[in-house]
Amino acid sequence: MADDLGDEWWENQPAGAASSPEASDGEGRGDTEMMQQETAPVPALSKKTKQPKECFLVQQKETKEDATKTRKRRKKKITDVLAKSEPKPGTPEDLQKLMKDYYSSNRSVIELEELNLPDSCFLKANDLTHSLSSYLKEICPKWVKLRKNHNEKKSVLMLIICSSALRALELIRSMTAFRGDSKVMKLFAKHIKVQEQVKLLEKRVVHLGVGTPGRIKELIKQGGLNLNPLKFLVFDWNWRDQKLRRMMDIPEIRKEVFELLEMGVLSLCKSESLKLGLF
């Protein structure tokens, strides 16, 4: 009878059930391990995957800000250096060097040597102690006699070249003590058409011209200005604008100046009929 009950008990057990206390203990350990796996802190892994992304984004933002601050510091430093640097007066050697640097890429060695101007064609440069009137009186002490003998139209005796129309007006106002009764003409493009300037040069005798190299070039091209009677060519060399740039520090102005020199100025200098001054 006991055997029958035992057989009946075995038959009623579910498939895979433990047959002994040892098996039951094994099943308990399996359940414990499963519970531990289910309760394991899975979010810790997600934190590890997100953390590098957050660090990377913060680092990239700081790098951009640092770069911007660095650029601002550099600009301020350059301005401070220019503002604190002592101004040095221009010399004929400065002009000669700029010419060589400008033409070195497209001229041969022989052609570069031909650009060299004799020392005799240069007037005494401004040592930064002169006003425009006092400088012009020093380099041209016989101006009154020269202007009285000048009667050719479409020409001037003296050209003063500067970087802008506003600067030209300043120079005209500052040379009152020198010019006297001389006829002065504005040779720049602002508010003045080139055709009007050509007509004025054809109608009357002009002694002094003050303007920009671009407009002077255009007047020469259109036949409104003849350079042969020209005796003095003065560059507004040492003056600096709000950005502390001299006339020849501005690429556009420097290019126009050298193009103007090639339109007959260099040949007149070599023949010693024209003198160059650096104010």
Task: Give a description of the structure.
This protein is of the alpha/beta class. It is 56% helix and 7% strand. It has a domain at 88-278: Rossmann fold, CATH 3.40.50. The protein has helices spanning 2-12, 21-38, 43-84, 92-103, 109-114, 132-139, 143-149, 165-174, 176-179, 194-203, 213-221, 251-270, and strands at 158-161, 184-187, 208-211, 232-235, 275-278. It has a five-stranded parallel β-sheet with strand order 2-3-1-4-5, sandwiched between helices. The N and C termini lie far apart (135 Å). The model is unreliable at 1-6 and 15-30 (pLDDT under 50).
Major beta-sheet overview: 5 strands, parallel
Order of strands in the sheet with the most strands? 2-3-1-4-5
Using the coordinates above, name the CATH class of the domain at 88-278. Alpha Beta
Please state roughly what percent of the residues sit in beta strands, choosing from under 5%, 5-15%, 15-25%, 25-35%, 35-45% or over 45%.
Answer: 5-15%
| CATH superfamily placement of the domain at 88-278 | P-loop containing nucleotide triphosphate hydrolases
Strand tally: 5
CATH architecture of the domain at 88-278: 3-Layer(aba) Sandwich
Tally of helical runs: 12
Low-confidence stretches: 1-6, 15-30
The portion of residues assigned to helices is: 55-70%
Rg, nearest Å: 44 Å
Shape: globular
Structural class designation: alpha/beta
Nearest-integer average pLDDT = 81
CATH-derived topology of the domain at 88-278:
Rossmann fold
Order of helices and strands: HHHHHHHEHHEHEHEHE
- In whole angstroms, the N-to-C terminal distance is 135 Å
Biased composition (Acidic residues): 1-10
Pfam families: CMS1
Organism: Lynx canadensis (Canada lynx)
GO cellular component, one term: 90S preribosome
